[in-house]
C-alpha cells in the first residue's frame, strides 16, 4: 500500500474529468441546438456548413430580390395599362374625326383631347418610378450614343459594340414649283377668282382679295393639308410637312387664270424621297443586316430579332457612328453566386418613341394617318407589355426554384450541423450518471491512504 501516489484516485480523477468534459459538450449541444459549436467538433463539417449557410442566405436574399423585381414589373405594367387605355381612346377619337360629318370645329375639339392625352402619356413615361428609379423613360433600356440621330431604340438582341452607317442622301419633302410672290400689290381679279386645293384642303379666293388676305387663306389651307408655304412677300413655294416617299403634295387650281396668277400649273402632284443609306459592313453589323427607310426614320434588322431604329436629323448626309452600350438595363440578382442575374429592359414609352407626338386630326388626312400611327403605337406598347409579362413569369419561376433550393439546402445543413436532441439527451443522462459514479469512486479512492496509516498503529 502506498501513500505518496494514490494511483486509484488518479485513474478515477482522470475518468471523472473525461466524463465532465463530455457532459459539458453534451450540455452545450443541448443548449445551442447545434451539433457543431467549435471547429474542433467537426472540422470538415464546419467548413461544409459554413459554405452552405452562406449559400442559403444568398438564396433567401435572391428570392427577395426576385420578388422586388416582380413588384417593379407590376408597377411598370400598371402604368402601361393606363397608357394603353389612353391610346385606345385616341384611336376612338381618330375614328370619330375620320367621319365625314365631323366639321372642322369638331375636329379641333377632338384634337384638344388628343393633345391632353399625349401630354398625360408623356407625364406617365417620365414620372413612373420604383424606389426613385424611373421605369418608362428609356433609362433602363440599351443605350445608344450617337450624333445626328434621335429616338434611337435597340432590341434586347443587340449586343454592345460599334455600329456604323452612312446617309448618302437625306430624306426630302414633297415640294412645289416656284411661283409668283404674294405681296401687298397682289390682288385677285374677277377672272381669276376660284378655289385652290392643297392636299385636299380647299380655299376660295374671291375677287378683290389682296396680298395678306390671300396669303392667310393659303397658309391656313396648307396647314389643313399638312403643308407649308414660303414667307410672305417671297416667291411662292409649298412643301409637305412630312419627309419621304409617302409625303405627297397635290396642288389644284380651279381655273387656268388663277393658276397663271400664282405662276403655277393648274394641277401638279409631287412626292418626297426617302433617305438612302449604306451600312458599314466593317463595323459590328453583320453581312446579313438589312435596312428599311421611311422618310428619315431608319430601321436596321438582322437575324435573331436584332433591330436598331432611329430618326435621322433632317437634311443631314454623312457618317453615323453608334456606340451601343450595355449600360442602362436593370440586372436583377436572382442567384446566390456571381453572374446569376436576369437582365430587364423596358423601352421608352413616351409619344416621341411611339411616333404619335405629331398626330393632328384637324388636317384633311390627319385622322386616317392618325389611325395608322396609333395602330403602330398599340403594337409597340403591346410588345413591351408582353416582354414585361415574360419577365414576370420568369421571376415567379425563379422565386419558386430559389425557395425550393433553399429549403433542400437547409435540410442538408440541418443534418450536418443541427443536434439530435433525443440522442444528446441520452448522452447527457449517460455522462451525468458516469460523473456521479466517478465522483463517488474518487471519494472511495481517496480513503485508501487512510487504510495504510492503520498499519502504523
Helix count from the secondary structure assignment: 8
Task: Give the averaged pLDDT, no decimals.
Answer: 91
Strand content: 15-25%
Structural class: alpha+beta
Portion in helices: 40-55%
Main pleated-sheet profile:
4 strands, antiparallel
DSSP strand count: 19
Enumerate the strands of the largest sheet in spatial order, edge to edge or round the barrel: 3-17-5-13
Secondary-structure blueprint:
Elements: H1 7-32, H2 43-98, H3 104-127, E1 129-130, E2 133-134, E3 144-145, E4 149-154, E5 161-169, E6 173-175, E7 194-198, E8 201-205, H4 211-224, E9 227-229, E10 238-243, E11 248-253, H5 256-262, E12 267-271, E13 276-279, E14 290-294, E15 297-301, E16 307-312, E17 318-324, E18 330-333, E19 341-344, H6 366-417, H7 421-446, H8 448-453
Helix pairs in contact: 1-7, 2-3, 2-6
Q: What does this entry look like structurally?
A:
The protein is of the alpha+beta class. The strands form six sheets. It has a four-stranded antiparallel sheet, with no helix packed on it. The chain has a four-stranded antiparallel sheet with strand order 4-16-15-14, with no helix packed on it. Strand 15 and strand 16 form a beta hairpin. 29% of the residues are buried.
Descriptive tags:
single chain, 457 residues, alpha+beta, four-stranded antiparallel beta sheet, 19 strands, rod-shaped
Amino acid at each position: 500500500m502506498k501513500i505518496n501516489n494514490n494511483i486509484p484516485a488518479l485513474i478515477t480523477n482522470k475518468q471523472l474529468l473525461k466524463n465532465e468534459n463530455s457532459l459539458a459538450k453534451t450540455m452545450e449541444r443541448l443548449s445551442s441546438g447545434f451539433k457543431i459549436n467549435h471547429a474542433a467538433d467537426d472540422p470538415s463539417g464546419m467548413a461544409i456548413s459554413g459554405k452552405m449557410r452562406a449559400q442559403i442566405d444568398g438564396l433567401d436574399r435572391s428570392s427577395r430580390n426576385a420578388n422586388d423585381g416582380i413588384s417593379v414589373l407590376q408597377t411598370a405594367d400598371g402604368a402601361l395599362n393606363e397608357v394603353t387605355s389612353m391610346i385606345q381612346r385616341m384611336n376612338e377619337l381618330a375614328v370619330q374625326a375620320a367621319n365625314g360629318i365631323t366639321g372642322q370645329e369638331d375636329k379641333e375639339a377632338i384634337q384638344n383631347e388628343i393633345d391632353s392625352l399625349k401630354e398625360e402619356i408623356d407625364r406617365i413615361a417620365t414620372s413612373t418610378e420604383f424606389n426613385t428609379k424611373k421605369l418608362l423613360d428609356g433609362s433602363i433600356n440599351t443605350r445608344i450614343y450617337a450624333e445626328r440621330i434621335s429616338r434611337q431604340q435597340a432590341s434586347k438582341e443587340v449586343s454592345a459594340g460599334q455600329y456604323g452607317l452612312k446617309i448618302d442622301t437625306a430624306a426630302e419633302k414633297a415640294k412645289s414649283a416656284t411661283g409668283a410672290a404674294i405681296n401687298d400689290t397682289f390682288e385677285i381679279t374677277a377672272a381669276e377668282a376660284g378655289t385652290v386645293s392643297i392636299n385636299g384642303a380647299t380655299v376660295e379666293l374671291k375677287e378683290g382679295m389682296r396680298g395678306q388676305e390671300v396669303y392667310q387663306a393659303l397658309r391656313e389651307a396648307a396647314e389643313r393639308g399638312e403643308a407649308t408655304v414660303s414667307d410672305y412677300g417671297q416667291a411662292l413655294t409649298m412643301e409637305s410637312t412630312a419627309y419621304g416617299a409617302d409625303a405627297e403634295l397635290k396642288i389644284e387650281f380651279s381655273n387656268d387664270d388663277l393658276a397663271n396668277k400664282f405662276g403655277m400649273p393648274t394641277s401638279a402632284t409631287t412626292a418626297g424621297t426617302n433617305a438612302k443609306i449604306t451600312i458599314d459592313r466593317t463595323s459590328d453589323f453583320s453581312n446579313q443586316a438589312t435596312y428599311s427607310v421611311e422618310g428619315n426614320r431608319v430601321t436596321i434588322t438582322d437575324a435573331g430579332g436584332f433591330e436598331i431604329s432611329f430618326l435621322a436629323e433632317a437634311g443631314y448626309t454623312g457618317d453615323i457612328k453608334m456606340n451601343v452600350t450595355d449600360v442602362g438595363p436593370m440586372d436583377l440578382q436572382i442567384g446566390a453566386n456571381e453572374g446569376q442575374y436576369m437582365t430587364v429592359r423596358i423601352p421608352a414609352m413616351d409619344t416621341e418613341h411611339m411616333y404619335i407626338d405629331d398626330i393632328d386630326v384637324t388636317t384633311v388626312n390627319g385622322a386616317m394617318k392618325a389611325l395608322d400611327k396609333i395602330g403602330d403605337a398599340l403594337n409597340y406598347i403591346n410588345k413591351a407589355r408582353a416582354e414585361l409579362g415574360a419577365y414576370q413569369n420568369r421571376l415567379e419561376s425563379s422565386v419558386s426554384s430559389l425557395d425550393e433550393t433553399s429549403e433542400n439546402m437547409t435540410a442538408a445543413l440541418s443534418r450536418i450541423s443541427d443536434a439530435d436532441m433525443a440522442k444528446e439527451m441520452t448522452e447527457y443522462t449517460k455522462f451525468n450518471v458516469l460523473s456521479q459514479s466517478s465522483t463517488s469512486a474518487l471519494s472511495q479512492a481517496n480513503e485508501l491512504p487512510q487504510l495504510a496509516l492503520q498499519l502504523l498503529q
